[in-house]
Design a protein that fits this description.
This protein is α/β, with parallel strands linked by helices. Helices cover 45% and strands 15% of the residues. It contains seven helices and six strands. A four-stranded parallel beta sheet has the order 2-1-3-4. The chain has a two-stranded antiparallel ribbon with strand order 5-6. Strand 1 (12-17), helix 1 and strand 2 (36-40) form a beta-alpha-beta unit. Residues 190-204 have low confidence and may be disordered.
Length: 204
């Protein structure tokens, strides 16, 4: 899988389905800034979907056979398709996200286990708290100032590394075994968070 971030305000989306799963997907899309969306129920035909000008088709709350007919027609028409909880019918998957302003951290298991994705997302959210919204703005302004000064890309990267080290926002990464242990504990105690002292500052 190739992870990308899409600006959904610029993409025409066709959402098809029914029930609570359909409503939940619609609300999620609205939260992420969708501006061009068409809604169809379970009575839509494959030919209607193929003829629609949407570039992306999402299906939620339909039985497998109906979803397969629609997804096949959409794919033949060159559209990207996602079908809720039917991995073999999907061209892409949704991620579990941590949003801190312009900072977006996405977690995906490629549909293998949405529960695991959410658990890891919640774990990461405990490390990257609300303060990262302002921190992201701060380093963005720092980077903009460097570019306005005519700094080259290598110079910007080096200066940004030094900036982060001096701020002490990031700590030593823990090893994989420790992460697994912490994540297992986190499943039992959601308020547990990783902590690191100022002595653990490291350039990243």
């Amino acid at each position: 899988m190739f992870p990308i971030a899409l600006d959904l305000s610029k993409i025409n989306i066709l959402l098809i389905g029914k029930g609570e799963v359909f409503r939940r997907r619609y609300n999620q899309l609205m939260e992420y800034g969708v501006e061009h969306i068409s809604l169809f129920g379970d009575d839509v035909s494959g030919s209607q979907v193929a003829a629609h000008d949407a570039r992306m088709v999402m299906i939620a709350g339909l039985p497998y056979e109906k979803a397969k007919i629609i997804s096949d027609s959409a794919r033949l028409a060159g559209k990207l398709v996602n079908v809720e909880d039917m991995n073999d019918l999907c061209d892409f998957y949704f991620t579990a996200n941590v949003n801190r302003g312009d900072l977006l951290i996405a977690v995906s298991t490629s549909g293998a286990s949405p529960t695991l994705s959410r658990k890891i997302r919640d774990y990461i959210a405990g490390i990257f708290g609300a303060e990262w919204t302002q921190r992201t703005k701060e380093i963005a302004e720092f980077r903009t100032n460097l570019k306005e000064q005519g700094k080259t890309i290598p110079q910007v990267l080096e200066a940004s590394d030094i900036f982060l080290k001096e701020k002490g926002w990031l700590c030593h990464p823990v090893d994989g075994e420790a992460v697994a242990q912490d994540l297992a504990q986190f499943a039992l105690d959601p308020v547990q968070q990783l902590c690191c002292s100022q002595d653990d500052k490291v350039e990243v």
